[in-house]
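Write out this protein's structure.
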Amino acid sequence: MRINVITIFPEYLEGPLGLSIPGRAREAGLVNYRLIDLREYATDRHRTTDDEPFGGGGGMVMKPEPFDAALGALEGPGRVVSLSPRGCPFDHRTAVRFALESDLTLLCGRYKGIDERVTEKWVDEEVSIGDYVLSGGEPAALVVIDAVVRLLPGALGDHDSAASDSFYEGLLSAPSYTRPAEHDGRSAPGVLRSGDHSRIEAWRAWRADRATRHRRPDLLDLDAAD
């Protein structure tokens, strides 16, 4: 898989993409990251990538020309995604869809956003990682990349690890415990140390359902359950 990120701060992403699962996946040849400095495609001597919005108002808008040039220079950008607070919520299903792409291009906006003509011409979809505004799309790009890359076959080295994560089956995950069995006067549940796999799976299913009902009832079709 190839992931392109168009940004005015490529150095923001360089460190994190070399660490942990994203870094190991690249070393294993599962993914290739290409960080594209948008300023390299600006045409003036100041490498300007933003300007005042038409119609007035505060803030700045990212100019269309650098994005046009950067995207046009890519050989097959694949699915183009703009990271924006006005986008559709990014969730596990979206991560799965993105993980099936051979090429994925992420656009990191700044200020008041990207000129709409870029979206109309190039963007397949806009996604948001939450109902809040960040200084730019770079943190959101890292979130998307991490969620997508860990789903690539071989990235985790253990499919069961991903299959037991929250949202994989539509629910939150059950609580997890490790050694020591006793810590600070609290014990890990005996069922998890019993070796009885059918009881363990039943316990995890019960706790996953309980956690989801308590914290994220929106994930459940409660009317159907009733």
